[in-house]
Design a protein that fits this description.
two-stranded parallel sheet; 21% strand; 8 helices
Length: 281
């Protein structure tokens, strides 16, 4: 009997990402699909935006027509119904509203919302008129995974401590109504890469040693790994722990490729962290 990350092609669970293209391959659809493959799932994708992006940053964004995004969603879901879905960069209000409508109409669940608003460098990845629509979309989420800066913007709370992070996680849950909130700690400056998970009842922290370099696509890979776990019928706590182990190994092995932040090592060598034996709580 195969474990989730040892699935054969015929039993690989289909997983869908709705996101943008990063030509450098370190983030967006590329990171999602590599992560899905590393977890033994069958990756599918709906394109929302094309970007002029490298490991050094984003210089331009071109959004697809919302009607075309909707057609992609309808056709792929009709052809191969996904076992779980995640969103990445949606960029503007029209695309976000289209995805929210499709999430309800097509029953896109479980749904992981990575509320992509800025890059690690602070470059905007969400148009100014789209924040209200994004907050509404988060209400459809099984899990939402904002970074620290994104969490601050979603609920207008300055985060300077763990207590602030916990308060922001509770506020996102109570105001925006996702089932689970995970505030990722990659943007923090302390020695521990700590993510705060709130399930509507209890706060948990997932911790790992921070590496001495910045990476490109860490949030994408984490949310994609979580989505793969949910597709494989893991409970949220187990899927989160496996995703954290996966991304920790992928960051640790990240090669110095490109002139900017390192892209993660999203390949077979990270499978060792898919074992559920070690608890992070």
């Amino acid at each position: 009997m195969s474990t989730p990350h040892e699935s054969t092609d015929h039993d690989a669970r289909p997983v869908l990402t709705i996101a943008g293209i990063d030509p450098s391959g370190g983030a967006g659809l590329a990171a999602d699909l590599k992560t899905f493959a590393a977890h033994g799932t069958y990756g599918m994708s709906v394109l929302t935006v094309a970007t002029d992006c490298t490991t050094e940053g984003v210089t331009d964004v071109h959004a697809l027509p919302p009607a075309f995004v909707r057609r992609q969603l309808e056709r792929v879901v009709d052809d191969i119904p996904p076992a779980a879905v995640k969103t990445g960069m949606l960029f503007n209000m029209a695309i976000i509203e289209t995805v929210a409508e499709a999430a309800a109409d097509l029953d896109l669940m479980p749904l992981v919302i990575d509320p992509v608003m800025t890059t690690r460098r602070g470059e905007p990845l969400l148009s100014e008129d789209a924040e209200a629509a994004l907050r509404t979309l988060i209400g459809h989420a099984t899990v939402t995974t904002p970074s620290l800066p994104e969490a601050e913007r979603l609920v207008d709370i300055a985060i300077q401590s763990r207590a602030d992070t916990e308060a922001a996680a509770r506020a996102i849950h109570d105001r925006l109504h996702p089932a689970h909130v995970v505030i990722t700690g990659g943007h923090a400056s302390d020695e521990t890469a700590a993510d705060c998970w709130y399930n509507g009842d209890t706060i948990h922290w997932l911790e790992a040693e921070r590496q001495p370099y910045a990476v490109h696509g860490g949030g994408d890979a984490f949310s994609a790994a979580l989505t793969a776990g949910l597709a494989q019928n893991l409970k949220v706590d187990a899927a989160l722990q496996r995703a954290k182990r996966f991304v920790t190994r992928a960051i640790r092995q990240a090669p110095p490729r490109g002139a900017g932040h390192r892209p993660l090592a999203l390949n077979g060598r990270t499978h060792a962290l898919a074992s559920p034996n070690e608890s992070l709580f």
